[in-house]
Amino acid sequence: MTYSHRQFNEIMSSYEEKRRKNRSLSDARKKEVYERIPSLKTIDEEIADIGTEAAIKGITEGSSAESSVKSIDELSAKKTSLIKNAGYDPSYLQPIYDCPDCRDTGFVNGARCHCLKQKIIDVMYRQSDIYPKLREENFDTFSYEYFSGDTLIQMKKIRALAQDFVDTFAKNYVNMLFYGNVGSGKTFITNCIAERLISEGYSVIYLTALRLFELLNGHVFRRNGSVFDEDSYNSLFDCSLLIIDDLGTEVMNSATVTAAELFQILNERDNARKPTIISSNLSLEQLKDNYSERSFSRILGGYELIRFTGEDIRLKKRRQA
To answer: pTM of the prediction?
Structure first.
């Protein structure tokens, strides 16, 4: 997943539009309040004049701004009292921001704000195959139609577990490994989780194991002058939730090095308490055979293991079509 300079410029233009919109709203509020409380404009002008005078004196005379600060504090208190007495919230005339953390610039202390990271991820999702799937596969479209017996009981428990995962995402740290039969609902459940968390503003990276290992191979084996998607790689560490689908389907060329890279990511995410969900059609024994004992032990020890059983739902749908 990557994005172009044009798309990045469009994102930054959207920040400019946010600032313009919010400045316009702030100006409208100020005009409204000034009309209702004419003395407030005079107070704001006095505060501005005192601040300017203090700044000039500080530069030309090196004098202390203590008296100026006291005067400004007194005027500000008077201003707040007038606003409250007129029935307004004291914050009504404060600057308006969609994202107070970066003040709608996209950056905090030179680093990308969480809101900018999410916008970039949204762009990457919209141009990927997963985006339309999330509109079709989510908690609202989840159905038990193709489950029965013990499998139905199991899927009700798994759905409840997934729902609890998103409901408590902000306060609980949980990693999960979904494993079991092909077509038994693992990808649908991960899509449900991804769609809900994305809609709540969390940064979610969803990659098939094949695409993930292509990215990791690019990082490990890049050569001088080669193009590498550094942003996508870094997002594996930074995103709120990393979902790796179909682990075990990747081509295991240079497997030792690339698998080590994968488990470095899992280790760093674990240290940062950033959740990861892995799904695989392989059994635990097959996963153990494919990866090192140490790597497998990390998954086994640090993840909730959820086994999916039952027939291939896609085959059931075809038979009933």
So the answer is: 0.64
